[in-house]
What we know:
The chain is mainly beta. It has no helices and eleven strands.
Amino acid sequence: MEVTQGKEFHIKSGDTVYVISGKEKGKTGKVIRILRDKRKAVVEKLNIVKRHARPSQKNPGGGIIEKEAGIHISNLMIYCTKCSRPVRIGRKRLSSGEKIRYCRRCDEEIKS
């Protein structure tokens, strides 16, 4: 899959997100990391998959390991803690030149 360079995602690592589609629909979680090339986000304790691992120094017994898999960013919305609901975000540049993201419902700044 081709990723356009310089394209910003509306979700960043550390954001609290709400899942709007898929098997985890309706749940919230914190973004652990962004997989830019696949346009996915790994969300804490959501979309758990089982992977078979062979024995290694880190995991001497091997076996079945449960870990988080990516969720496509189109299925996620930023969750505003002030509004207590999923919201759309806007971007604006302050007079100091700094770019910020804000909740378009309550005008609260979104910090990741």
